TrEMBL record:
<feature type="transmembrane region" description="Helical">
    <location>
        <begin position="34"/>
        <end position="52"/>
    </location>
</feature>
<keyword id="KW-0472">Membrane</keyword>
<feature type="transmembrane region" description="Helical">
    <location>
        <begin position="6"/>
        <end position="22"/>
    </location>
</feature>
<feature type="transmembrane region" description="Helical">
    <location>
        <begin position="82"/>
        <end position="102"/>
    </location>
</feature>
<keyword id="KW-1133">Transmembrane helix</keyword>
<protein>
    <submittedName>
        <fullName>Uncharacterized protein</fullName>
    </submittedName>
</protein>
<feature type="transmembrane region" description="Helical">
    <location>
        <begin position="58"/>
        <end position="75"/>
    </location>
</feature>
<keyword id="KW-0812">Transmembrane</keyword>
Length: 132
């Protein structure tokens, strides 16, 4: 189950990358933030039975921390302030949490962190202007 969740998350991140490159949405960072949230929630949903069997009531925070972290950038973009900081904090939290739980369920959350890191990198690059 863990391998399925990890491979699915990697495939979803690659799919989002291809869609952003091919479709060129108006705000690719918004797409990446929402995709990171959806991927994180789906990974948590897939891993819930496994984690509850293994860890009992601790499954709430083991799975909840990455979900809450992935929700922060989506909430920050609603207010349109410091979204790059929310992206960075969420990416760091998910990465650190994924590494702490790396021998168990943590690796499945790391692909979503890649999307959030990409939004931080994209925030620092200037947009190309289209010629008129």
């Amino acid at each position: 189950m863990l391998a399925l969740a990890t491979i699915g998350a990697i495939a979803a991140v690659l799919l989002v990358g291809v869609v952003v490159l091919v479709r060129r949405p108006a705000d690719p960072r918004r797409v990446a933030r929402w995709a990171a949230l959806v991927i994180t929630v789906l990974v948590a949903a897939v891993l819930t039975p496994y984690t509850v069997d293994d860890s009992g009531t601790a499954a709430g925070y083991l799975l909840g921390v990455p979900v809450v972290a992935a929700a922060l950038p989506v909430l920050a973009q609603r207010f349109d302030r410091l979204t790059w900081l929310a992206d960075l904090v969420a990416a760091l939290v998910i990465t650190i949490w994924g590494l702490l739980l790396g021998l168990g369920i943590g690796g499945a959350f790391l692909p979503a962190a890649v999307l959030l890191i990409a939004t931080v990198v994209a925030a620092g690059t200037p947009r190309r202007s289209t010629p008129a």
